[in-house]
Amino acid sequence: MSVTEPEGRPSRPFTLAGVSMRELLASCAAAEAVSTPPRLPDPALAKQPVERPEAA
Question: Mean pLDDT of residues grouped by 10 in the chain (56 residues)?
Answer without folding.
Answer: 61 68 92 91 73 78
